[in-house]
Amino acid sequence: MLQLYGKKIVLTACVTVFLIVLMFSAMKVSASTYTVGVKTGDWAGYGDMSFEYASNWTGYEQPPSEMNMSWMGMEVLEVQDSNVTVRSNVIYKNGTEETYTYWGDVATGEGDLSIGLIPSNLSVGDEIPANLTYYTEEPLKLFINGTVTRIYAGANREVNYVNITYPIIYGNITYGSLNMSLFWDRKTGIMCEEVVSYRMSYTDNETYYYMNMSISWRMTATNMWPAVFAAHDGYTFNVTMTGNSTISNFNFNETQKEISFNVTGPMGKAGYCNVTVPKDLLRGEPWTIRLNGTDWTTSCSITENGTHTFIYIPYTCSTNTIQIKGTWVIPEFPYILILPLFMVFSIIAAILSKKTHRKSSQT
């Protein structure tokens, strides 16, 4: 009976953790207390995933295939009052994918949307309107433990977090524990990161049984806020990007008059990136865009206003290298610094002049 009970818990965790959703029981809360922070069309992608699994239970020595994910995406399809409908897309490393649609009332916890999305602007001590029931036999109430600043999808975000440690008990004996750390963007309420650790062991007929599992995933792309990269040390010029891919290895090369970075997404899917470049940093007359070394300029859309250039770059997802080359780059000493430097040198010259004059007067 003990072994079957343990298997039930572990299988439940393994099979469902790959979904953004965690099933909740309904809890009635006044809808006026909570607000929805997302809108139709908002999207988040989760590409930074880690899975570890070890077990000697007969029949469960290998992890469930559902753990072999490479990408998850969640798109908001509809928002009506506090009711939200989302579509979740899961892509596995073998290329197969599954799509699910979920609905939930963010203000009450009803529906199957779960904690993938919670009310916006919660504070420390606020209760999340749902009871976690799928990992444990008894409901777990969730309260915001704290608020910190962390980097998600290329930007510093203020996030709320919950840490849970739940003992795995059968009868009066503790066999292990379930640990969870959950992070949500405070402004929108969308899930940014989940870390789950499950450890259980016991001895039966002198045989030691164990099952250890750890799962983590975090948001790496979104259209809800831009990724921001400081493009020039010592100056405040930032390059911002939005898209449906993970952005990494950003680099600004002043000598080459070039911005470069990598974009990574689910293999074979349509990808895009919107890049906003300050004209005081880099200009192109004309611009040259390269994708994996190939001239990609004619496939891109380039527009501008008085202060910025906007470059839309489409591509087929995998791991791609993008280079944006201009024809003018910010000089080593920008004109905005020339006047202050001139003033400093003038003051120094005046001080030295006065000292020289005093010495000559004394002699």
Describe this structure in words.
With 363 residues, the protein is mainly beta. Helix content is 12%, strand content 51%. It folds into two domains: 2-222, YmcC-like fold (Beta Barrel), CATH 2.40.360; 227-329, Jelly Rolls (Sandwich), CATH 2.60.120. The strands form five sheets. A nine-stranded antiparallel beta sheet has the order 5-4-3-2-12-11-10-9-8, covered by helices on one side. β10 and β11 (191-204) form a beta hairpin. The longest helix has 28 residues, at 335-362. The protein starts with a helix and ends with a helix. Residues 1-32 and 333-342 have low confidence and may be disordered.
Secondary-structure topology with pairs:
Blueprint: H1 2-17, E1 24-25, E2 43-55, E3 69-80, E4 83-92, E5 97-105, E6 127-132, E7 140-143, E8 146-152, E9 155-170, E10 173-185, E11 191-204, E12 207-222, E13 227-230, E14 238-243, E15 246-253, E16 258-264, E17 270-278, E18 282-283, E19 288-291, E20 294-295, E21 301-304, E22 308-316, E23 319-325, E24 328-329, H2 335-362
Antiparallel strand pairs: 1-6, 2-3, 2-12, 3-4, 4-5, 6-7, 8-9, 9-10, 10-11, 11-12, 13-14, 14-17, 15-16, 16-23, 17-22, 18-24, 19-20, 19-23, 21-22
